[in-house]
Structures
1.
Amino acid sequence: MDWLEYQNGALFAEKVAMQRIAADVGTPTFVYSKAAILGAFREFRDAAAGRDVLICYALKANPNLAIIDLLAREGAGFDIVSLGELRRVLAVGGDPSRVVFSGVGKSLAEMQAALQAGVGCFNVESIPELHRLSDCAQAMGLRARVSLRVNPDVDPKTHPYISTGLKQNKFGIAHEQALSAYELAASLPGLEVVGIDCHIGSQITELSPFLAALDKLLELTEAIEARGVRLHHLDLGGGLGITYQDEVPPSRQSLFEALFQRIDRHPIGSRCRLMFEFGRSLVGNAGVLLSRVEYLKQPPVPGQGKAFAIIDAAMNDLMRPALYEAWHGVSEVQLKPALPSQCFDLVGPVCESGDWLARDRELRLEPGDLVALRSAGAYGMSMSSNYNSRPRAAEVMVDEDRYTVIRRRESYEALLADESVLPRA
Ligand code: LLP
């Protein structure tokens, strides 16, 4: 995260002091770097230069309009999983023909809206979905462009909650069922088969699962085309991991090089457009969660037992530690070398023992100090909630020496706005 740097002991986001953001906007606040997001996208784009590759951004990682707008203007496509996400792409003037619609449970209303908008492709995940989509498109006098999400049964070697390409997962059409599903899709009047896709999981830190999934897909493309169904694109999903602690994922460039090498040897693969649906690897290391220490709670006997730093961010703001025992780095916003360092658990104000954000960290802290929870750009704000009636955090994007509030802190009025009491008798 080279956009985060200390200058004279104070942590800066690009050229803006974190202290200033906290003073102006308050805490907890997610802080993103425009340069880091663009840098990540451009690395993918440059690695694919001269090829027919569409890099989609998986909105679920962080759907803030400013981020979508930034990436749309760079030429990204988008991977969406709901009507809400489609509305976000359309709200910034994104090109619907560069949108792929993923997800196992698309409702009829979502299909209608996506067809109306003209999304580029539906990534279909089951036989009943094929029927529903065909009927829906036919009733609208349209044909839906479809790809079938194949579940290649490849182990992504990642956390079980974020592994999606194994037989026991709910995702995709089983590999052995794929051929008959393609035949069915090709025969349905409301559908036009255009591609094939897979997504095997997230936070993948090795090349081999990507290559294994690619091999299975390439093998299938031959069998599919042998049955007279022509494919135009190959969508390999997202999933490239990032460094939270000491993981060493393949670089964006080496992933592409390895994939291209295999694809180029394959007659169908090399003719098809290649697509990706990256989320975490575009935004994960481009954001931190800025938070203030409310209290330091010392153990009854000094030096024995846990010391807690109770901060104003909680599991409702960053749920990854509670849900996956995820590790996020913690940086003091002002280094205080004169303070003794102590081992703290960083916890939030929410009434759950699972409400922790980092454990056993050596830090030099006083009440009122600011901390930055690192690598919080992906699946931070997007998974946040109002648990304990906590308004959602603000979001800020830094651009060199300026910053913009890209989502203001949720107000208490907004928190209550959609609710009502029963009529009084
Ligand atoms: N495409 C599909 C169909 C997906 O299901 C996902 C993520 C992506 C693309 C983007 O994957 P990425 O490039 O971000 O790995 N909440 C979890 C991650 C869940 C990922 C769900 N699907 C976390 O915080 O680690």
2.
Amino acid sequence: MNLSITNFDSYQEKYQQSIKNPDQFWEVIASQFKWQKKWDKVCSWDFNQVDIKWFEGAKLNITENCLDRHLPQKANDIAIIWEPSEPGQPFIQLTYQQLYEQVCQTCSMLKELGIEKGDRVCLYMPMVPELLIAVLACARIGAVHTVVFGGFSANALAERIDDAGCKLLITTDGAKRGHKIIPFKQIVDEALALSKHIEKTLVYRHLGEKCAMQQGRDIWWHELSQNQPSEFIAVAMDAEDPLFILYTSGSTGKPKGVVHTCAGYMVWTAFTFQNVFQYKEGEVFWCSADIGWITGHSYLTYGPLLSGATTLMFEGIPTYPDASRFWQVIERHRVNIFYTAPTAIRSLMAHGTTLPEQFEMESLSVLGTVGEPINEEAWQWYFNYIGKRRCPIVDTWWQTETGGIMIAGLAGVTPQKPTFASYPLPGVQPILVNENGKEITEPSTNGYLCIKYPWPGMLRTTYGDHERCIQTYFSTFPGLYFTGDGAFRDELGMYRINGRVDDVINVSGHRFGTAEIENAINLHPNAIESAVVGYPHDIKGEGIYAYVIFEQNEINEEQLIHEIKDLVIKQIGKIAQPDYIQLVQGLPKTRSGKIMRRILRKIAAGQYDELGDTSTLLNPECIEFLKEGQKSLMTSS
Ligand code: WTA
């Protein structure tokens, strides 16, 4: 992709072009892809009804752009490097030709299982190459993939399967995560006992351990893959046909299925990948995110493959077998560009600099972060000890809903400033507004971060409930896409993202709605009411703090806390487990009965002197009890 942004001036020039004449700008970018039919119209949009179309009238298949398009020149180039969880085990490399063939074979398997264009397929798998292959096979056959992160529980999986109406589920027998074995198939069996839709499951044997197979429903991947042809004609998709659904948390209790469509998402992920990371042919790109999250979709899978890059997929975790594993992987595969989350940096930073110093990481040329604000200390550590002051850091702000990176530096091209995501990408028109939706134009101000013009990678709807999409993202400030984040813009126009301003908490870069966790807690027969808030956490960014009003019969409080934690694990997964549960008798409420979460957040953070005026509360007397309880929880932990 030739944007020729090589310095700050050309960035500014391209940015202006993208704003003044977006259609022309995107037409040039889009013309570099392989289309079965070109578009009639570049962009049409209406933010009130959320009717957004990019490249309408075009026909394409994203996998022809990820695979077929590269074969004439790159058949023998490495597309994927897979690094297993166990460090001693051999890694796998697949060339573009091999990946192409495996994707085509998998398409034939899907076809044999009755999958057709438009069907939804759920993928619940560890980070094995077959996950990436299955994602692409769905896209090639025109099925809508919905990947559910392996850390979610059977209940959460069942909820997502039912919401999307998935016909097929692809999983593995199990996987190792650090020292632990995760019984994927067993979790699937539990989920399928709760859910109605799945007709078949395809099971990839990864661990080789015994697992129950239900006759007529469960099929082994290795059996079905026998003798499948290595060609499969890509199904022609309309530009606005859905490509995938990815569930994410919002301020209500129910996760939303964010829908991305074929053409716009393709153009956006490739464009942002190449420009932000300044990817050069032959480089090894490593995004450490799981494919179960949007970052793994856009920057482990689609962005790199659309660009003919070598993408590294790591099955393991940063601290297994010890906290040098990331650095080992960088050395082993001569990684050039490394993209990870601030939480990982902070947890590895806690182990000091001697570990990274033991590895040869001269191959690194660009570093990236994503998922949460990065604090200055972590930024400096990453810059000094991993990048050795040679590598620019791109702090990339974006969301599941935006499909790809929105605000970030272009590595080595635009200026960087620690803790600032910096400038919007060409095509992105952010604005800050006050609580009345009025634009704030003064320099050096905070405001609610909104986007005022469509970009190709934006969400099109929330699956099965378009009204919810309108309400959640386009109604708070009419005419604008509201991100849910607060931001600061400095005198140079650089943005720093301050974090969520809604009831979403970001724990180690994972999003949870507080209502989602409260719903799980409230299922306990002794829980009368609960309120969940985030509090600052040194490693995780935010931790989860739950206040629970409970029925005071003869209950053992320790036991109750234990049962509540178990319920959250059962309903959502271990990843949403509260760090603290404070049993209380009352929660601060306004006279109209609304829980004052602002006060609860301050108490959870121990910031007692920032509570503000509490005298107008319905029940100001509860504050002292809440403070006492918080103090004793902190001292006992
Ligand atoms: C937060 C992840 C600060 C933000 C790609 C956003 C960030 C939410 C950054 C989306 C960043 C993401 N700096 N905050 N560089 N990147 N966030 O949907 O609050 O999992 O709204 O997408 O993460 O999380 P999601």
